[in-house]
Amino acid sequence: MQHLDTFYKNAIRRFLQPGWKTGLGFIILLSIPRVFIVLQASLTGNYQYVSILFLVMWVLPFLLLTRAGRKQIGIKRPQHAWWILMGFLLGMACCTIMYWIGAWLFGVSTHQWFVYISGTYTQVPAQLTSNDRLVFFLVYSAISMTFSPVGEELFYRGIVHENFAADMGDTRAAFVDSSAFALVHLAHFGIVYSGQQWQLLYVPAFLWVLFLFGACLVFYISRRKSGSILGAIASHAGFNLAMNYFIFYYIR
């Protein structure tokens, strides 16, 4: 990591220094509460607190980091702008592969990740006209292509990554931030509520985490190739767009 001494703002530098301990602290601080918030939201259908958590991830770089620090995590103009589009398409491709493998292995059962996630869309009527389907697809896609891609990529591929990279280099840091991202998403699928109780679907959960880990590496590559965090955000947004397409046009 460059600019080690100017990564955090002066007031923050008294308490935080770039390194794996700080990165782990951020993961614990935001990821553990998120698990419980998402599990509760999957029952109620109320994701407002999840959205607030994403907004916190949005603002953290501007609250904690210097201008040099924000540049270090990729908040800057892309060096290779065409990789924004490439990252978007790669994100869609990752999701498409995940969907078809899940459909092949588990059909339309709730052991298929996107089938279970579609069941948490409690605001969507059971029966949809073609016009309603398009409206819900556009609304859900717009939300899922902004809140989580921006917040999570600034956090995981940005702040968390650069803290771990300070001690272990970019490649191993990418494995760490990808693992953290994938594991926290067990709250979205893997730990499921079925038969009036919580269950861990061991094999589907393992595959879900494995596939998300791979997708995160693609997000990271998109950041590096584009020279900006926008590459990772675009890749994540492409993944979420494809996910909503499969949910509304293949599952619902």
From TrEMBL:
It comes from Rhodocytophaga rosea. GO terms for molecular function: endopeptidase activity; metallopeptidase activity. InterPro entries: Rce1/LyrA-like_dom (IPR003675). This is CPBP family intramembrane metalloprotease. It comes from the Bacteria. Residues 137-241 form the CAAX prenyl protease 2/Lysostaphin resistance protein A-like domain. GO terms for biological process: CAAX-box protein maturation; proteolysis. Keywords: Hydrolase, Membrane, Metalloprotease, Protease, Transmembrane, Transmembrane helix. The keyword Protease applies. The chain crosses the membrane at residues 23-43, 49-69, 81-106, 134-155, 175-195, 201-222, 229-251. The lineage of its organism: Bacteria, Pseudomonadati, Bacteroidota, Cytophagia, Cytophagales. The keyword Transmembrane applies. It holds the Pfam family Rce1-like.
